[in-house]
Amino acid sequence: MNLEEQVLAIMREVFETDDVSTQSSQKNCERWDSLHHLTLASELEEAFDIELEPEEIGAMTDFARVIEMLKGKL
User: Fold this and answer.
1) Is 31 exposed, middle or buried (0-12, 13-18, 19+ CB in 10 A)?
2) Which of 24, 31, 35, 42 could form a disulfide with 15 if both were Cys (CB 3.0 to 4.6 A apart)?
3) 50 contact partners, CB below 8 Å, separation of at least 6
4) Which residue ranges make up each domain of the chain?
5) Nearest 5°: phi and psi at 43?
6) Which 3 state secondary structure label does DSSP give 53?
7) Which regions in the chain score pLDDT beneath 50?
8) How far apart are CA 35 and CA 48, in angstroms?
9) What are the residues facing 62 on neighbouring strands?
10) In terms of pTM, does the model score above 0.90?
């Protein structure tokens, strides 16, 4: 499973929906609220054994930015 597939799987679990894609963002994903956003950050930290800074968590507003941030950490 590549990075993108792993992140999509985590997002689907966190947001409790299969309606997540590489185009998903806070604007078009109804379940991407502040609570789920923090849960997503926590799940990503655990899955990839990384620590996210508050600025990085705040910048994760869509799938592409999540991937970009993770690539910088891995």
Assistant:
1) middle
2) 31
3) 44, 70, 73, 74
4) 3-73
5) -65, -40
6) coil
7) none
8) 20
9) 25
10) yes
How many residues in total does the chain contain?
74
Q: Which residue has the tokens 């800074």?
A: 53
At 62 the three-state DSSP class reads: strand
Alpha-helix runs per DSSP H in 16-74: 34-48, 54-59, 63-73
Tokens of 43: 């799940």
- Neighbour count for residue 64 (Cβ, 10 Å): 14
Q: Tokens 């849960």 appear where? A: 39
CA dihedral 73, 15, 12, 41 (to 10 degrees): 10
CATH of 3-73, one of 1.20.1270.10, 3.20.20.70, 1.10.1200.10, 1.10.10.10: 1.10.1200.10
